[in-house]
């Protein structure tokens, strides 16, 4: 892998490439060009080639990319060849939807540990996964060497949850709480405020 700083926008496109390659692979397509890959995602072929070039030379000029080879390389680059154990805090409707989404397990992303402030009051289906009380957070994370966490709690409780997760050893957080978390610089965080997308559409329709 080249020792060059990769732009964040490139990193965020890699999962798109991998997902599209999964699709064409399931259709029996063995070779794909940068134009075909780009057209399938609405990305210029020049950008596809530039993005992939940060990590090596995977294709052959005039031929394209072998789908299975490129998939294997992207899987390694994205860390999906590891089986990640993930803890989720907040077993409400959103939390349950995330746990029950089958696509994560196919990628080796296993949300097998769920915590909630009131586990005995949770209604719904969590695919037979036990819900732990928050008092068990440190124990669950340390015993299972968990590095990735998902926060799906109300905004007012998110910062406290994040602090506890970091104190217990979590290094990356996927935050669904509609609030900005103040975290140490070495902690990776991805914010997903679901309302922003709808608000943006409302803006465009109103203007």
3D structure, described in words:
The chain is globular. It is of the alpha/beta class and 207 residues long. It has helices at residues 8-26, 34-41, 45-53, 67-77, 93-100, 103-106, 137-143, 155-167, 194-206; strands at 31-32, 65-66, 84-89, 109-116, 131-133, 148-151, 172-175, 188-191. Helix content is 44%, strand content 16%. Helix 2 (34-41) packs across helix 3 (45-53). It is built from 9 helices and 8 strands. The model has no long low-confidence stretch (mean pLDDT 93). The strands form 2 sheets. It has a 6-stranded parallel beta sheet with strand order 5-4-3-6-7-8, sandwiched between helices. It has a two-stranded antiparallel sheet with strand order 1-2.
Sum up the structure in keywords:
207 residues, alpha/beta, six-stranded parallel β-sheet, two-stranded antiparallel sheet, 44% helix, 16% strand
């Amino acid at each position: 892998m080249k020792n060059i700083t990769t732009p964040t926008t490139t990193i965020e496109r890699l999962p798109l490439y991998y997902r599209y390659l999964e699709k064409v692979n399931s259709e029996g397509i063995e070779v794909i060009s940068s134009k075909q890959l780009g057209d399938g995602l609405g990305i210029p072929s020049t950008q596809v080639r530039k993005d992939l070039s940060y990590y090596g030379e995977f294709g052959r000029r005039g031929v394209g990319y072998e789908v299975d080879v490129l998939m294997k390389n992207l899987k390694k680059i994205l860390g999906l060849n590891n089986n990640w154990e993930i803890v989720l805090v907040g077993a409400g409707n959103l939390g349950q939807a995330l746990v029950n989404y089958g696509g994560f397990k196919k990628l080796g992303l296993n949300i097998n540990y769920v915590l909630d402030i009131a586990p005995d009051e949770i209604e719904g289906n969590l695919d037979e996964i036990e819900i732990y009380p928050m008092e068990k957070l440190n124990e669950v994370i340390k015993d299972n060497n968990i590095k990735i966490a998902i926060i799906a709690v109300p905004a007012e409780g998110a910062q406290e949850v994040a602090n506890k997760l970091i104190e217990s050893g979590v290094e990356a957080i996927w935050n669904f709480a509609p609030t900005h978390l103040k975290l140490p610089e070495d902690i990776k965080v991805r914010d997903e405020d679901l309302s922003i997308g709808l608000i943006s559409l409302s803006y465009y329709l109103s203007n």
